[in-house]
Amino acid sequence: MRVLVIHGPNLNLLGRREPEIYGHLTLEDINSMIEEKAAEHSLEVEIFQSNHEGAIVEKLHEHYGRSDYLVINPAAFTHYSIAIRDAVLAVGLKTIEVHLSNIHSREDFRKKSVIADIAVGQICGLGYRGYLMALDYIKEAE
Fold it and tell me: What is the CATH code for 2-141?
Protein backbone atom coordinates (compact mmCIF):
# COMPACT_ATOMS: atom_id res chain seq x y z
CA MET A 1 0.00 0.00 0.00
CA ARG A 2 1.50 3.32 -1.12
CA VAL A 3 0.60 6.57 0.62
CA LEU A 4 1.48 10.10 -0.45
CA VAL A 5 1.51 12.63 2.40
CA ILE A 6 1.37 16.29 1.38
CA HIS A 7 1.90 19.25 3.69
CA GLY A 8 0.83 22.62 2.34
CA PRO A 9 2.14 26.16 2.78
CA ASN A 10 3.79 27.42 5.95
CA LEU A 11 3.90 23.98 7.55
CA ASN A 12 7.68 24.08 7.10
CA LEU A 13 7.60 26.69 9.91
CA LEU A 14 5.94 24.39 12.45
CA GLY A 15 7.46 24.66 15.90
CA ARG A 16 8.08 28.39 15.40
CA ARG A 17 4.85 29.56 13.77
CA GLU A 18 2.00 30.25 16.22
CA PRO A 19 2.84 27.37 18.58
CA GLU A 20 -0.26 28.16 20.64
CA ILE A 21 -2.32 27.00 17.63
CA TYR A 22 -0.05 24.51 15.85
CA GLY A 23 2.08 23.16 18.69
CA HIS A 24 5.81 23.00 19.31
CA LEU A 25 6.70 20.05 17.09
CA THR A 26 8.58 20.78 13.89
CA LEU A 27 7.58 19.37 10.52
CA GLU A 28 10.62 17.10 10.74
CA ASP A 29 9.32 15.76 14.08
CA ILE A 30 5.92 15.05 12.55
CA ASN A 31 7.44 13.47 9.45
CA SER A 32 9.51 11.14 11.63
CA MET A 33 6.35 10.01 13.44
CA ILE A 34 4.58 9.51 10.09
CA GLU A 35 7.48 7.38 8.83
CA GLU A 36 7.52 5.30 12.04
CA LYS A 37 3.75 4.69 11.89
CA ALA A 38 3.93 3.82 8.18
CA ALA A 39 6.70 1.29 8.87
CA GLU A 40 4.67 -0.19 11.74
CA HIS A 41 1.79 -0.72 9.31
CA SER A 42 3.99 -1.86 6.40
CA LEU A 43 2.89 1.14 4.35
CA GLU A 44 5.16 2.73 1.79
CA VAL A 45 5.04 6.47 2.38
CA GLU A 46 6.35 9.49 0.48
CA ILE A 47 6.21 12.85 2.25
CA PHE A 48 6.19 16.18 0.43
CA GLN A 49 5.84 19.79 1.56
CA SER A 50 5.49 22.88 -0.59
CA ASN A 51 4.48 26.48 -0.23
CA HIS A 52 3.53 26.50 -3.92
CA GLU A 53 0.17 25.40 -5.28
CA GLY A 54 1.59 24.32 -8.63
CA ALA A 55 4.24 22.14 -6.99
CA ILE A 56 1.53 20.32 -5.05
CA VAL A 57 -0.48 19.81 -8.24
CA GLU A 58 2.63 18.44 -9.99
CA LYS A 59 3.37 16.05 -7.09
CA LEU A 60 -0.20 14.77 -7.27
CA HIS A 61 0.17 14.20 -11.02
CA GLU A 62 3.39 12.21 -10.40
CA HIS A 63 1.39 9.84 -8.22
CA TYR A 64 -1.29 9.02 -10.76
CA GLY A 65 -1.35 5.22 -10.75
CA ARG A 66 1.59 5.09 -8.30
CA SER A 67 -0.11 5.58 -4.94
CA ASP A 68 -3.25 4.25 -3.29
CA TYR A 69 -3.96 6.94 -0.72
CA LEU A 70 -3.35 10.63 -0.19
CA VAL A 71 -3.08 12.17 3.27
CA ILE A 72 -3.12 15.92 2.76
CA ASN A 73 -2.96 18.98 4.93
CA PRO A 74 -3.60 21.62 2.28
CA ALA A 75 -3.18 24.36 4.93
CA ALA A 76 -4.30 27.73 3.49
CA PHE A 77 -5.05 26.06 0.13
CA THR A 78 -7.86 24.16 1.91
CA HIS A 79 -10.18 27.08 1.56
CA TYR A 80 -9.83 28.03 -2.09
CA SER A 81 -7.56 25.86 -4.23
CA ILE A 82 -9.72 24.45 -6.96
CA ALA A 83 -6.49 23.50 -8.75
CA ILE A 84 -5.51 21.13 -5.92
CA ARG A 85 -9.08 19.82 -5.66
CA ASP A 86 -9.14 19.10 -9.41
CA ALA A 87 -5.75 17.38 -9.23
CA VAL A 88 -6.93 15.16 -6.37
CA LEU A 89 -9.97 14.19 -8.42
CA ALA A 90 -7.89 13.67 -11.58
CA VAL A 91 -5.45 11.23 -9.98
CA GLY A 92 -8.17 9.30 -8.17
CA LEU A 93 -6.38 8.79 -4.86
CA LYS A 94 -8.47 7.93 -1.81
CA THR A 95 -7.96 11.06 0.25
CA ILE A 96 -7.88 11.88 3.93
CA GLU A 97 -7.73 15.58 4.80
CA VAL A 98 -5.80 16.44 7.96
CA HIS A 99 -5.50 19.71 9.89
CA LEU A 100 -3.52 20.31 13.06
CA SER A 101 -6.03 22.82 14.39
CA ASN A 102 -9.80 22.59 14.42
CA ILE A 103 -10.64 24.64 11.34
CA HIS A 104 -14.31 24.64 12.32
CA SER A 105 -13.66 26.56 15.54
CA ARG A 106 -11.51 29.26 13.96
CA GLU A 107 -12.18 32.23 11.68
CA ASP A 108 -15.16 31.90 9.36
CA PHE A 109 -13.02 31.75 6.22
CA ARG A 110 -11.22 28.68 7.59
CA LYS A 111 -14.43 26.70 8.06
CA LYS A 112 -14.86 25.96 4.34
CA SER A 113 -12.82 23.21 2.74
CA VAL A 114 -12.87 22.60 -1.01
CA ILE A 115 -11.31 19.17 -0.34
CA ALA A 116 -13.63 17.77 2.35
CA ASP A 117 -16.46 16.65 0.09
CA ILE A 118 -14.12 14.61 -2.14
CA ALA A 119 -12.25 13.04 0.78
CA VAL A 120 -12.90 9.75 2.55
CA GLY A 121 -12.74 11.78 5.74
CA GLN A 122 -11.39 14.83 7.50
CA ILE A 123 -9.41 14.82 10.76
CA CYS A 124 -8.89 18.16 12.43
CA GLY A 125 -8.02 19.62 15.78
CA LEU A 126 -5.97 16.69 17.07
CA GLY A 127 -2.54 18.06 16.18
CA TYR A 128 0.06 15.70 14.75
CA ARG A 129 -2.09 12.74 15.84
CA GLY A 130 -4.37 13.37 12.87
CA TYR A 131 -1.70 12.13 10.48
CA LEU A 132 -1.15 8.99 12.54
CA MET A 133 -4.89 8.35 12.75
CA ALA A 134 -5.11 8.65 8.97
CA LEU A 135 -2.43 5.96 8.60
CA ASP A 136 -4.24 3.75 11.14
CA TYR A 137 -7.41 4.11 9.09
CA ILE A 138 -5.60 3.21 5.85
CA LYS A 139 -4.13 0.08 7.43
CA GLU A 140 -7.52 -1.02 8.77
CA ALA A 141 -9.44 -0.12 5.59
CA GLU A 142 -7.33 -2.25 3.30
Answer: 3.40.50.9100
Q: Where are the domains of the chain?
A: 2-141
Instruction: Answer yes or no: 80 catalytic.
Output: no
Q: Which residue is catalytic, options 22, 69, 128, 131?
A: 22
Active site residue 131: no
Q: Is 66 annotated as a binding residue?
A: no
- 79 appears as a binding residue in the annotation: yes
Which residue out of 63, 99, 128, 131 is catalytically annotated? 99
Report pLDDT digits (tens) over 72-87: 999 999 999 999 999 9
Say how many C-beta atoms besides its own lie within 10 A of residue 131's C-beta: 25
> What pLDDT, in 10s, does the model give residues 28-46?
999 999 999 999 999 999 9
Question: Is 101 within any annotated ligand binding site?
Answer: yes
> What is the pTM for the complete model shown?
0.95
Each residue's pLDDT tens digit, 85-123 = 999 999 999 999 999 999 998 888 888 999 999 999 999
User: In sequence order, what are the residues at sequence separation of 6 or more whose Cβ sits closer than 8 angstroms to the Cβ of residue 26?
Assistant: 14, 15
Q: Is 136 annotated as a binding residue?
A: no
List the one residue out of 42, 101, 92 whose CA is nearest residue 67.
92
